[in-house]
Structure formats: structure tokens, C-alpha cells
Amino acid sequence: MILKGFEELKKFLDKPRNIVIVGHRNPDGDAMGSTLALCHYFSKKGHQPTVVVPNEYPDFLHWLPGSDHTFRFDWQNSQAQKAIKNSDIIFLLDFNALHRVGSDMQNTLEKYENDFAMIDHHQQPDDVTYMYSDTEICSTCQMVYQFIEMNNDLDLIDADIATCLYTGIMTDTGSFRFRSTTSKTHRIIADLIDKGAQNDKIHNNVYDANSYGRLLLLGQALSNLQILPEFKTAFITLTEAEKKKFNFEKGDTEGVVNYALSLKGIIFAAIFIEDTEQQIIKISFRSKGSFSVNKFARSYFNGGGHDNAAGGRFDGSMEEVIENFKSLLPKYTKELNVSYEA
Fold first, then answer.
1. Which residues of 238-262 are buried (b: 16+ CB within 10 A; e: fewer)?
2. How many CB atoms lie within 10 A of CB 159?
3. For residue 341, is pLDDT > 80?
4. Beta carbons of 141 and 164 less than 8 angstroms apart
């Protein structure tokens, strides 16, 4: 764990501040849950907080309390720029490096003259003035809970804050099934339920709100599934044409890679998604046991994340990325075969 400048940050926040809270590009449940929860908390502390996200996030997260008061940097640029310019400090949540917000917003943040505070659980974070980093914690939402706890303010957590935090912890732990879900995580979840988080409603809003097109897209993804048994690996592809065919919307591919990982005997899974807007192939990696997809993504696909969940990108065609991916696997035959869950 890295806890840098915490006491100084507490003193800085002793009086009302204009605060901007930023999540990463393509925000997921943990990014939106943590930024909105911290926003609600700071508002109760007498500050003037604003959440700025780089771009659109999935429709199944728009119900979160406070979601309608966020600014999108790509769409509401003048409002977002004004909020950033007028802020006394910027909190960076659920990402470890400025490039994770996208090049346009990154350029703006790199010119920012005041301090950054980071709350994040990804490996190898950039150095900022104030930092709370812990790669052992399952989600940034759990870290926000613990940040509030370190400030002796757990009594300020109301139903809105609890709902946002529960959502982020639930989504980033795969509904509490990943190894990073600890007994402390469950104790925190119990407290959030006691404070007003309706676990059944939250689960339904996130996981039981599929569009017809999203289910058909999932069917297409599963029909594209390929298995490489000699490497205990499986991967899925989705082209831009396939996405358009089923009326793709932001968030429709969330969690699809886990279907590949769910296969018996598979410990390494990937999904390759064509993105013509960014002119890249977006990649998500998942693994079981000791095989680190964080190291794999950092080494070959300009990415990173956690040991068992990471992302990356490839500048080229779908055919090229698959060929590249397959060519790398023989280097890891031994590692892939000795994973303790193999």
C-alpha cells in the first residue's frame, strides 16, 4: 500500500474546496461508483465537487445516484474545461496514469497547475502529490469506503453513497467471486446494505437490463469463440460489422471475456474487439491462478491492470492481432500449465 501526503490532504480539505473527480475513459461500474460516491461524500463535507468523465458510459449505470450531474469531457467540453480550470484539486479515481483518460483529456490534465490526488488499485501508478494506492484491494469503491473510514466519517455514508460503492465493488469482483474479494470486503458490503444499499435492486439494474441486441451480440461473440487447449487458452473476437449488426451500445461487451474463462481447463482468456472510431483493436485479458495478464498486457499490448484482469490495445487488423497473440503463447507454455487452478 502507498499512502502519500494523507495528513496534508486532510488539512487541505479542512475548508471548502472546488473539487473535480475524474474517472478513466470508458468508465465501468467501479469508475462510476467510486467517482459518484466520493462526490456525494465531499458534498456532505461542504465542498463543491464535480464529476468529469472522459466519455460515455454504459446505459446500465445511468441510474446511479448523481449520474445526471456528471460532465462528459468529449460531449460537454466547455463545462468540463471550466470545472477543471476552477478547481482547487483533482481526484483521479480507478486509474493509475493520465493516458487512461484519452489523449484529449490527458492534454488538459497535463496542463493543470494545482495538485492531483489519486485513489486507485492498479499496479505501477504515476507519481502525484497525494496518493492512496493499494493493489491488494478488490476495487476502487472499497478504497473510497476506506478513505472515508480513515477520515472517521463512516456515519456520513447514506443510501446514495452506499449504493454507488456497492455497485462498484459488485462489478469489479464479478459479483464477489474473484480472489481479491476478502472477508473485509464482505464486512464492508454488509455495512453498505445496513446503510441503505438495496443489493437486489442494484444487481437487477446492472445485470438484468439487457437489450435484445446485446443478447444477440453475446450469441455472436460465443459463436466466434476459439479454444487453444495446448495453451489452456480461449479467445473471442468481435468485428465492427458484427457490433453494428446487433446495434452495439457502450457496455454491451462488458464481461463477455469471462465466458471464455469459464470453460473447463481454461486459465487464460481474451477478447479482441474492433474499434474503428479509435482505429485500434481493444483487448481484455482474464486469467486464473498465477498467470499474470497484467505483465502480459504491459509487455505486448500497451496495457496493464491486475494480475488476473487487464486490458490492452493493438494498432492493426483483427487478423494481425490474432496472429500476434497466437505467436506469443508458446513462450508461456510452462506458466500456463502450472497455474494452480489449471
1. bbeebbeebebbebbbbbbbebbbe
2. 14
3. no
4. yes
Q: Nearest 5°: phi and psi at 273?
A: -120, 120
pLDDT digits (tens, 9 = 90+) for 44-82: 999 999 999 999 999 999 999 999 999 999 999 999 999
pLDDT of residue 19: 98
Q: Evaluate whether 283 touches 236 at the Cβ level (below 8 Å).
A: no
Cα separation of 317 and 335, whole Å?
Answer: 28
Terminal Cα-to-Cα distance of the chain (whole angstroms)? 30
CA distance 80 to 221: 36
List Cα–Cα distances, 299 to 155, 303, 304, 323, 325, in angstroms.
Answer: 44, 8, 9, 16, 12
Q: Answer whether 100's CB lies under 8 Å from 109's CB.
A: no
Q: pLDDT of 183-235, one tens digit each?
A: 999 999 999 999 999 999 999 999 998 999 999 999 999 999 999 999 999 99
| Residue linked to cell 444499499 | 197
Number of H helices, E strands in the chain: 14, 13
